């Protein structure tokens, strides 16, 4: 550092301190989802990924969850760009909500850019991102940083690890990755770039922890191809329905190829399946011979053994193609004993029941179903233990931060790094919002905390969702509501009959006797109230609640939400 | 059949028809849970098992689900007894709700009887069952039936297959089983009884389908013992916490034995763990040396390496021992880096998230955690594919009904039976309530349907729970409620200000502007109403709802439940 000792009253020492490198994940730590990490050095910040997360079961009525952008908005003027590792929702899905508030360039592959554009349209933002398209091996300058894009393998094409070259040293952010030695699209992970970085010296490695619990290596996508080949041969007389992730365009490519080899045409079903295949065709990521894709009408006219239906719904999503087929409510595709259904996916944690119910319904349609339990019909997109060790071996980082995992994954990955020789005091299990500050290149510590609570999105309402709303929903969901309206005249006596209604309560029953009991409880509260001349009006609702609660307490586990409305005339 | 041609106006043919054998599952088909099957012949009915099921996620506020007992209550006078295969909740848990209405003897092992008694006490029924205790090899007469109890292996001691000897032939009901060649308690499955039955001829086999998707054989419980041995040796300096199913008393026995070998004492945590161990000690199912069980106080005073804590909570149940420890809210046990926690169980489908959250919290306490992903620390209690084939080989049934499984399991098990040579037309995938009627011993068909809807239990309210209540709860859970009270005078004009309250709605926000908008919508409805002299009073709530809905429609995904209360003075 050079320069005068004192600028604007800030000493050189202060300025130097201000220019420490920091890393701050606003999401993705202790969770799989809403990945977003901020890197800062002096007046320059960059962001890697900006994803969403699907809600927990107890987040009633919530559509999804995004990171808190407060820290970004406060430092908006410093942000030199958002860098996208790949186009999955947990890495791009929060952009429609956060990007318009920051209005900074987005560096990403053309495929990720197309997926982001579709998200922007869906969310009706009217905002047009300033895309700066990149390819593997590209290097981009952003303030004092240089960001390098390194080819990796994952369950979507164009997945990158990012190297953030900072004045304090190089940071490798693995993105979501695996080392697939035989990828479908031929784009192998760039082992040599990682090795070169290791030779040059890596300050910090942040690495995907999703599959740290799995021993060995994640099988190659190619293996799935062999399974499909076998199933297509075995069930050569049936119509074949394949459900998979619409973003897994390498699998899509493989299914198209297998279909062509078995002289079958492909019908696409599901909005995102159609949209993603169209996007991939436009960008040249996918290449399908003329006439290989057919309409529902054409599929109807072809014999069963000439048709493959490629559909959404591998996670049992309620309104997806496969689920509507399984319910018999799909407009174009009716399933029966002529069909083989292949679910080429594993349930994402939390979706197990939805998938299982879908499989049961598919069997009930009479179809034969090949799913998780049966065959090698899916491989993960994330590195298993041996590959995580390879990543550590290639990059040999001084500091290590496990990322993209639940807390247990981060602990296991930290244990692994320690076993691999990373100094225990240089390994940090961070929480969302932790600001990890580096002093030069030899010392780091958590030196602050940015706001990083989850922001819940209900519908497309932009903004925060108060926790109290969720609590109220949970209470009503468990026990229902009892609504009471009383009208009082000047001397605090009832001017009309008490009105009581219930919803979702065991007291909703037709049997009026309970309602009459509740009514008498309310009348008792009113009588008590009119006898207490000193009582303040505001306390009456509490009194009504109390009396009703006493009456309901005869059933010790019935606690509806009680809403009294008192009108004075 | 002999006897006069005509008795009480019923012909011999009619009587013969009435005396057809039937089998009717009221639960347990297409689901894992609430097992209950009725067997009938003429005027004699018997019931096998009477279990509960835990609710699906969308059954808001429901504690559990039991079978519909209508068919049983209607035929109460014919029921000769309820026969219990084993003491798991999905086989006994509905007894407190159904048994008092039938008041028939219960045939079961002493262990199952003890567990049923505890359930009866918990549910506060005040009913004392008429237990008839049985042991393996016992035969019991019940009307025209003879029921034989056959020793099997399962994840609870004293698990039986039942053979129902009927005038039309023998029915083998497998119960929940596996063939464990080296069971902890030495009670091996009675292969030879099954083989003898096969030789004598089995009319119908009903067999456990839970693990039909798993190839090979389910490992022996003994394997777990080896894993424990290894872990106890490896973590010899730590306190060891083991969470498992409290009913798996063979595992409990094994943990006590391992603890004793490593010179550790055992502290029991969790109500059901304490209750079940006490019961097993009383019955002699478990045998623990004097002084081997210690109090929390004593555990506190011993060094870490002398203590094992055996606790409930292996499924992440909210108020269980392990979960309270993981939250730091357990009164007696505080976890830290000195602890090894072993979760000796697999998440039951639907509990994955709860277990995963618990593991994350345990790691966050600083404990080392061994769970599913790591080690061989749990084996299933259900037969895998090879064992299911063995059951079919031994019994060689003429008819086959797969049971105890989701629909997909039943289909796979039916396919397996067909491959094993059972005639396809003699295999029936039944639904709950289906009455499978046998004509002699060569023909069977579904010839009727008994009521078999799920009965939902909220708290300990006995009786049915209306579907509409659940629907209302779901609606409120998704979007909250808006409650409106209006007071009108004789000429249908507002006599007081409109009152509006919301709960769990995005419109609950402090910002009063939306509430004012809703108020103006209500006033518009009232104005419209008073201008329409012909309008009937009953239609006003609908009009209010409509106007509010219109106002809210500006946000297309916000559909709160709207509850209008109109008072006329």
From TrEMBL, chains A, B:
In its UniProt record, a GO molecular function of this protein is:
RNA binding
Which InterPro entries does this one have? Metallo-B-lactamas, RibonucZ/Hydroxyglut_hydro, RMMBL, RNase_J, RNase_J_2, RNase_J_b_CASP, RNase_J_bac, RNase_J_C
Superkingdom, natural source:
Bacteria
State how the cofactor is bound.
Answer: Binds 2 Zn(2+) ions per subunit. It is not clear if Zn(2+) or Mg(2+) is physiologically important.
Q: Does the keyword Glycoprotein apply?
A: no
The UniProt record lists the EC number as: 3.1.-.-
Which GO cellular component terms, listed alphabetically, does the Swiss-Prot or TrEMBL entry include?
cytoplasm
Specify the Metallo-beta-lactamase domain's residue ranges. Answer: 33-228
Q: In its UniProt entry, what is this protein called? A: Ribonuclease J
Q: Please name the source species.
A: Synergistes jonesii
Q: Which gene encodes it?
A: rnj
């Amino acid at each position: 550092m050079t320069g005068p000792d004192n600028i604007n009253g800030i000493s050189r020492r202060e300025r130097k301190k201000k220019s420490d490198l920091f890393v701050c994940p606003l999401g993705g730590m202790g969770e799989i989802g809403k990945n977003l990490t901020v890197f800062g050095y002096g007046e320059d910040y960059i962001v890697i990924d900006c994803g969403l997360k699907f809600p927990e079961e107890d987040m009633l009525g919530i559509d999804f969850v995004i990171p808190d952008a407060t820290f970004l908005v406060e430092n908006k003027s410093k942000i030199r760009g958002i860098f996208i590792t790949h186009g999955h929702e947990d890495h791009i899905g929060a952009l429609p909500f956060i990007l318009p508030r920051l209005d900074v360039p987005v560096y990403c592959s053309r495929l990720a850019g197309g997926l982001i554009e579709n998200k922007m349209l869906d969310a009706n933002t009217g905002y047009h991102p300033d895309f700066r398209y990149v390819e593997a091996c590209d290097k981009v300058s952003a303030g004092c940083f240089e960001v390098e894009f390194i080819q990796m393998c994952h369950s979507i094409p164009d997945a990158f690890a990012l190297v953030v070259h900072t004045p304090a040293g190089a940071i490798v952010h693995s993105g979501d990755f695996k080392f697939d030695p035989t990828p479908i699209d031929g784009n192998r992970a760039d082992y040599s770039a990682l090795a070169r970085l290791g030779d040059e010296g890596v300050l910090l490695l942040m690495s995907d922890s999703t599959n740290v619990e799995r021993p060995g290596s994640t099988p190659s996508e190619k293996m799935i191809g062999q399974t499909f080949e076998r199933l297509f041969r075995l069930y050569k007389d049936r119509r074949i329905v394949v459900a998979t992730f619409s973003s897994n365009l390498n699998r899509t490519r493989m299914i198209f190829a297998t279909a062509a080899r078995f002289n079958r045409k492909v019908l696409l079903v599901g909005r995102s399946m159609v949209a993603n295949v169209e996007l991939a065709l436009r960008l040249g990521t996918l290449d399908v011979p003329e006439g290989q894709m057919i309409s529902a009408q054409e599929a109807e006219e072809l014999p069963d053994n000439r048709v493959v239906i490629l559909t959404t719904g591998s996670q049992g999503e309620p309104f997806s193609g496969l689920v509507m087929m399984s319910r018999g409510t799909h407009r174009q595709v009716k399933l029966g004993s002529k069909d083989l259904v292949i679910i080429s996916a594993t349930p994402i944690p939390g979706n197990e029941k939805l998938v299982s119910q879908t499989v049961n319904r598919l069997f009930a349609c009479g179809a034969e179903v090949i799913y998780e339990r049966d065959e090698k019909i899916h491989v993960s997109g994330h590195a298993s233990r041996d590959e995580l060790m390879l990543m550590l071996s290639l990059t040999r980082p001084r500091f290590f931060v496990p990322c993209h995992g639940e807390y247990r994954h981060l602990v296991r990955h930290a244990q692994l790094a320690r076993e691999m020789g990373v100094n225990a005091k240089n390994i940090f299990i961070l929480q969302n919002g932790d600001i990890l500050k580096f002093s030069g290149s030899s010392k780091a510590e958590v030196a602050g905390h940015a706001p990083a609570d989850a922001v819940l999105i209900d519908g497309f309402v932009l903004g925060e969702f108060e926790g109290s709303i969720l609590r109220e929903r949970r209470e009503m969901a468990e026990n229902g509501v009892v609504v009471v309206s009383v009208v009082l005249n000047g001397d605090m006596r009832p001017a009309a009959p008490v009105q009581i209604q219930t919803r979702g309560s065991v007291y909703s029953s037709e049997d009026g006797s309970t309602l009459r009991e509740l009514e008498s409880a309310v009348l008792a509260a009113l009588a008590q109230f009119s006898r207490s001349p000193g009582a303040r009006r505001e306390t009456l609702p509490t009194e009504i609640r109390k009396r009703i609660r006493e009456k309901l307490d005869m059933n010790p586990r019935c606690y509806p939400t009680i809403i009294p409305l008192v009108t004075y005339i």
